Recover the amino acids of this structure.
């Protein structure tokens, strides 16, 4: 099975900050990497698919990059509504697997 | 409007069974990859099962042999049959749609809660 590892597990940031979250796969997954945002009590929401494709309707301050084993989610200017937990997910092979999550908190 | 609505959750004793349903509207279950993803209280997301548009099914090792994913085209509904339930199966269960082989999940239901306890 492919293991996904995110870092950091949590971070504190201020509105307007640039935030970067890293996701590493235990083996190459090409660009089969997706990013989700989840707020408490709500289902996950897809932000980025295929490593760098922004889902329609998602603000352009979100961006993704990477291929192979190392990937990054960047929020260029953190907004109040961005405080949430973020998960990466590989869809290269079953079992599909998620990272453990990165909680973005208000500083 | 594209919508997924889960139902069937509840309290069940260890060793018991439960069938979850996910009613789809605005999309056709048989034309998509449909998954179940769960989240234990205070924990992260765990992918559980997927059924491909061609009918192939895959399950996480943690539920293999106990859970079965299936779809009913006439009802446009996804199911998860859960047998031999354990305390560690306690979670919110979400159904989700992937439009194809790339495997991203772009439509999610609100979830249904399963509690396994005596």
């Amino acid at each position: 099975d492919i293991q996904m590892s995110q870092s950091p597990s949590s971070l504190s940031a201020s509105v307007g900050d640039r935030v970067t979250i890293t996701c590493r796969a235990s083996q190459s997954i090409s660009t089969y990497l997706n990013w989700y945002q989840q707020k408490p009590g709500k289902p996950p929401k897809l932000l980025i698919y295929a490593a760098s494709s922004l889902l329609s309707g998602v603000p352009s301050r979100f961006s993704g990059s990477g291929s192979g084993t190392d990937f990054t989610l960047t929020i260029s200017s953190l907004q109040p509504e961005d405080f949430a937990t973020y998960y990466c997910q590989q869809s290269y092979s079953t079992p599909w697997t998620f990272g453990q999550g990165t909680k973005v908190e208000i500083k | 409007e594209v919508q997924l609505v889960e139902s069937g959750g509840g309290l069940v004793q260890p060793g018991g069974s439960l069938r979850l349903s996910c009613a789809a509207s605005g999309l056709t279950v048989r034309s998509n990859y449909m998954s179940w993803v769960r989240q234990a209280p205070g924990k992260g997301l765990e992918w559980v099962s997927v059924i491909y548009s061609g009918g192939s099914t895959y399950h996480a090792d943690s539920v293999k042999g106990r859970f079965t994913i299936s779809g009913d085209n006439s009802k446009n509904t996804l199911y998860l049959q859960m047998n031999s339930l354990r305390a560690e199966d306690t979670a919110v269960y979400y159904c989700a749609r992937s439009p194809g082989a790339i495997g991203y999940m772009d439509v999610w239901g609100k979830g249904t809660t399963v509690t396994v306890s005596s």
About this structure: The mean pLDDT of chain B is 97. Chain B has no helices and eleven strands. The CA atoms of residues 16 and 85 of chain B lie 5 Å apart.
